[in-house]
Amino acid sequence: MSDPIEAAILEELAKLGPGKSIEPADVAKELQLEQWQRMLPKVKTTALGLMRQGRLTITKKGKAIDPARMKGVIRLRLPTAEETAAALAARPPAPESDDDLD
């Protein structure tokens, strides 16, 4: 099952094209116009997950930021090839399988 917040973020970015960014509030308003403030923390959490997967870049003043410093006004955009490679390289290795233990 697809996450509706994740889908909304990626759809909004796809509409804009490469190099363009959106505010998390734009996505929250798209999902729940009347109570978008309640949706905003969920949008930011989903964006953080997408960033850790290498599928999204979180920026501040046009520059990619460390997620630990995600504070204040941020924007979301699709990552460059270099940013995707760096995010994937920073992921912890997958646990080894125990298939040979019988």
Automatic annotation (TrEMBL):
It holds the Pfam family DUF3253. This is DUF3253 domain-containing protein.
